[in-house]
């Protein structure tokens, strides 16, 4: 048994090819637009990220933190990540050598 060859008019073939060409052009445009939008999104993210000063070494800021609680030691973490130990305001428990003293830096 041989397969029957179906003859298709040339006009039908051309219309199908034209439709596929339009679809490929639309997909190519969609791909280019999506790539451009990804780059724009990353650029905006970097711009927003750079608005914050994460490593300010040109200014120094000193903060004094005190704790009124019982046996509490005030610790303050500054913008640069350094931990400043405050003083212990409690009258109890200060018999140790290092309690109540600034042990940072």
Any key phrases for this structure?
alpha+beta; rod-shaped; 38% helix; 2 domains; 105 residues; two-stranded parallel ribbon; 4 strands; two-stranded antiparallel sheet
Structural class, from helix and strand content? alpha+beta
Q: Any idea what the shape is? A: rod-shaped
Give the strand order, joined by hyphens, for the main sheet. Answer: 1-4
N-to-C terminal Cα separation, in Å?
A: 93 Å
Mind describing the biggest β-sheet? 2 strands, parallel
> Counting H and I runs of at least 4 residues, what is the number of helices?
1
Strand residues, percent = 5-15%
Radius of gyration (Å): 36 Å
| Number of separate structural domains | 2
The count of strands amounts to: 4
List low-pLDDT spans: 96-100
Helix share, percent: 25-40%
Q: Determine the mean pLDDT.
A: 75
Written overview of the protein:
This protein has 105 residues and is an alpha+beta fold. The chain folds into two domains: 8-52; 55-88, no CATH class. The protein has one helix at 10-49; strands at residues 66-67, 75-77, 83-85, 87-88. The strands form two sheets. A two-stranded parallel ribbon has the order 1-4. Strands 2-3 form a two-stranded antiparallel ribbon. A hairpin with a 5-residue loop joins β2 and β3 (83-85). The longest helix has 40 residues, at 10-49. It starts with 9 loop residues before the first helix and ends in a 17-residue tail after the last strand.
